[in-house]
Amino acid sequence: MMEEEELEFVEELEAVLQLTPEVQLAIEQVFPSQDPLDRADFNAVEYINTLFPTEQSLANIDEVVNKIRLKIRRLDDNIRTVVRGQTNVGQDGRQVKEITRDIKQLDHAKRHLTTSITTLNHLHMLAGGVDSLEAMTRRRQYGEVANLLQGVMNVLEHFHKYMGIPQIRQLSERVKAAQTELGQQILADFEEAFPSQGTKRPGGPSNVLRDACLVANILDPKIKQEIIKKFIKQHLSEYLVLFQENQDVAWLDKIDRRYAWVKRQLVDYEEKYGRMFPREWYMTERIAVEFCHVTRAELAKIMRARAKEIEVKLLLFAIQRTTNFEGFLAKRFSGCTLTDGTLKKLESPPPSTNPFLEDESAPEMEELAIEKGELDQPKKPKVPDNPFHGIVSKCFEPHLYVYIESQDKNLGELIDRFVADFKAQGPPKPNTDEGGAVLPSCADLFVYYKKCMVQCSQLSTGEPMIALTTIFQKYLREYAWKILSGNLPKTTTSSGGLTISSLLKEKEGSEVAKFTLEELCLICSILSTAEYCLATTQQLEEKLKEKVDVSLTERINLTGEMDTFSTVISSSIQLLVQDLDAACDPALTAMSKMQWQNVEHVGDQSPYVTSVILHIKQNVPIIRDNLASTRKYFTQFCIKFANSFIPKFITHLFKCKPISMVGAEQLLLDTHSLKMVLLDLPSIGSQVVRKAPASYTKIVVKGMTRAEMILKVVMAPHEPLVVFVDNYIKLLTDCNTETFQKILDMKGLKRSEQSNMLELLRQRLPTPPSGADGSSSLSLMAPTPEQESSRIRKLEKLIKKRL
Questions:
Q1: Cβ contacts of residue 556 below 8 Å, gap of 6+?
Q2: Burial zone of 231 (CB within 10 Å; 0-12 exposed, 13-18 middle, 19+ buried)
Q3: Which GO terms describe its biological process (predicted)?
Q4: Phi, psi for 335 (deg, rounded to 5)
Q5: Is the pLDDT of residue 575 over 60?
Q6: Do 473 and 558 contact (CB within 8 A), yes or no?
Q7: Three-state DSSP state, 128
Q8: Burial (0-12, 13-18, 19+ Cβ within 10 Å), 628
Q9: Are 580 and 641 in contact, with CB atoms under 8 Å apart?
Q10: What value does the mean pLDDT take over residues 510-523?
Q11: Is 377 helix (H, G, I), strand (E, B) or coil?
Q12: Alpha-carbon span 417 to 433, nearest angstrom
């Protein structure tokens, strides 16, 4: 039975002694042991097998068992000793705890005794302080009161939790009563020294009032505010009398006198009362700020009454002098009193801060030089360095319509002067060295815009800026119509008053004289000017958005005006294209009227080709040199001319019928010559050879290669029919029956012969996929540019051999 109980105890002990790996590792580090019995993964079977590896080793089993029992007894003795030791420690701990409790009680008693003594001392100080405070108040000993009152209030804070005690509460009420009496007494002293009505007490400030201000710093902030308010009101009372609405000096033309008066008052205050008020009251700045609020209200009132008398020069004079005064305040004061609300008036909102304020408030606005195509580079809105900006000048904003109307009138006169100057001076002289000259009037216009924008942004960044933007838009359009579009040259057959589009239609419909050198230069000059205006208008829009209030930026949009200048550019380019295109028309007409079936041999390029090349060499260098500063628009001219000339050339090519084999070879040679000239067109006649733009080259190669392929089909024998038709489909990617019939006409075939060939073409044309026009499948059959170039080279060799 005992053995079973011991076995159960061992099993329970094993269950309890299942230590975590971390604990086991710590034990092994502290008590290292090589005994297998100390291992966490002890295995009894393995241990027994280690003790008795063979049957012969069982002979000394009794000796081994005795050793293990001895070891068990030793472990039991050790455990018993440790347990008894822990029992003694517990008794010792209880004794120590009792001693510690006694010490803590003594500590609490000491602390309470110290607190009691300190409280009694504070109570004695408070009672004596209150008595002294009441006595000093009656004797107006404000210097001593200032020091004593702060000490009494600090001591009183220690008794906040003892207010339930009648004596403490009574002392607290006496302190509050003393504070109230001090406040009323100090206000009365200031009222006596600086009465609201009548004159100041002679003799200036006294030390009593200076000490009273020190006391007011400790009292309720309302006392300090009341002192400041009454003093400033009394100090500015003279100003309200001198500059009453009915006084002559109150009007805008004498606004300088207002600011001169306050400057004298500030100097007078510093001399007489500068030491009376504490420095941290910022009394000089407060006087200036209150003067600004009063002046703003007075000016607004008088301007409403005499609005009809306000002229733009008078308004700008008053604004300029006011902003100068605000700049003076910014240099003199920090603006720290603008946000404390001590003297804030409901009718006078805080001055608006202009995030786009610039140092451009000099007495006279300087006209800033403007680089070609740009105003000031856009800047990030900077933090205003003048906190006083707008504190007075805000009152002028409702009357800025006078300024806007004046700028409307001035800009109208400026545009009229531009028109008159152009008529009197004529177009700019040709300038082939530096490119087409920008009309000087556009720079003058944007300089004036810059001046107006700067002025208006200093006056207001709100609705007046939107109104000014509308005026800008109006005269940008007028400049585009009257100065640019209105001065584009007309042909000799055109009558006055025609629009550009009607002029171009007329040029298309009849043979007209070419533009002169001066007219070509004028068109290029107008194009360059329009390009300058387009770029500058975009930057003007960005600058306006930068200066206007953030909430109004969406209302500034000059896209329509930029589109107007883009239209002028397109019209100018189209005029240049139509002029050169029309000059080439007679040569193409001559080509179509030649008897190509009678040509007997292939010679040099035909006279019509020479004529076309001559016109190109006459016009293109002039246009290129005058558009040197706007290279992209010269490239547009080249592309538009190629897109116009090549289809017209192919149209006239179809009119050359019938054509003999030799005639077709001559036409092919002429076509190749024109192709080479067109590829060289962007740099023709230039000493500096530049590679033509890839977009232009692609258009010329595609168009003129089609003309060459048409002639190659004409040169091919039409029998056998299948071979001829397949060759046509192979050479022309855009093959169709209409083009095929024109080619048959060029070959001189009769209608009866053509019908069979057309029917065969319809049969052999690949069927386009559903929903497509067949261009994709046909393009797959087209020869590559390399193949075409090879064929053309072979044809050239053949022509040279025949020559």
A1: 466, 469, 541, 544, 545, 548
A2: buried
A3: lysosomal transport; protein transport; retrograde transport, endosome to Golgi
A4: 85, 15
A5: yes
A6: yes
A7: helix
A8: middle
A9: yes
A10: 77
A11: coil
A12: 29
Rounded to whole angstroms, the Cα distance separating 512 from 506 reads 9
For 754-784, the DSSP string reads HHHHHHHHHHHSPPPPTTS-SHHHHHHTSPP
The amino acid at residue 759 is E
Domain boundaries, the chain: 1-180, 220-332, 393-489+515-566, 716-765
**For the CA atoms of 688, 690, 692, 694, what is the dihedral angle to 10 degrees?**
-170
Six-digit token pair at 547?
């200066």
Shared fold status for 1-180 and 393-489+515-566: no
Query: 763 or 90: whose pLDDT is higher?
Result: 763
Read off the pLDDT band of 660 (50, 70, 90).
Answer: confident
Buried b (16+ CB within 10 A) or exposed e, 555-566: ebebeebbebbe
Hey, CA dihedral for 52, 53, 55, 60, is it positive or negative?
negative
Written as six digits, the tokens of 148 are 């004593």
**Of 584, 587, 619, which is closest to residue 606 (Cα–Cα)?**
587
Token pair belonging to 28: 């092994």
Six-digit token string for 731: 């050479």
State the residue for tokens 């805000």.
Answer: 394
Token pair in block for residue 341: 């609300």
Answer whether CATH 3.10.450.40 is correct for domain 393-489+515-566: no
Distances (CA, A) of 572 to 575, 634, 637, 763: 5, 11, 9, 48
CATH level 3 topology of 1-180: Methane Monooxygenase Hydroxylase; Chain G, domain 1 (1.20.58)
Q: Which of 8-12, 118-122, 301-305, 664-668 has the lowest mean pLDDT?
A: 8-12
Structure tokens at 704: 């003129």
Return the structure tokens found at 256. Answer: 């300088």
Residue that has been written with the tokens 């290279």 in this structure: 631
607 touches 591 (CB < 8 A): no
Three-state secondary structure readout of 287-319? HHHHHHHHHHHHHHHHHHHCHHHCCHHHHHHHH
Q: The tokens 């517990």 sit on which residue?
A: 90
Q: Tell me how far apart the 2 most distant CA atoms of the chain are, in Å.
A: 144
170: nearest Cα among 121, 130, 117, 219 = 130
The rounded distance, in Å, linking the Cα atoms of 119 and 171 is 14
